[in-house]
């Protein structure tokens, strides 16, 4: 008698049906034909129902606002290009040194 005669064979069985692999059925050619014909009909109906595209022009205020934004952006770029990386780091360090450190333990009491 072999040691493995009483052992059940096959894959492990897990609890629940959600782990089972289900094979999908292939669609028949008739189903594919009906789906494509329906899609074509819908596309034709959409083409008929399309409205002409309207072009919306911007108002004077919108044009002026965008112009001012563009100028401010140009000024910002010019200003940032004037400083080197080393100067920016030095300025940041200077600001950090001037700031009060909120995590320091305040001195309380005599001494």
Automatic annotation (TrEMBL):
Keyword terms, alphabetized: Coiled coil
Coiled-coil ranges per UniProt: 56-102
Name listed for the protein in its UniProt record: 9551_t:CDS:1
GO CC list: nucleolus
InterPro entries in the record: FAM32A
């Amino acid at each position: 008698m072999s040691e493995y005669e009483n052992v059940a064979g096959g894959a492990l069985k897990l609890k629940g049906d959600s782990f089972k692999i289900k094979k999908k059925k292939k669609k028949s050619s008739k189903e594919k034909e009906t789906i494509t014909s329906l899609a074509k009909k819908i596309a034709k109906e959409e083409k008929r129902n399309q409205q002409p595209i309207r072009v919306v022009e911007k108002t004077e205020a919108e044009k002026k606002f965008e112009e001012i934004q563009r100028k401010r952006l140009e000024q910002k770029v010019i200003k940032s290009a004037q400083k080197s990386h080393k100067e920016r780091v030095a300025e940041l360090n200077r600001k950090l040194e001037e700031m009060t450190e909120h995590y320091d333990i305040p001195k309380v009491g005599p001494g």
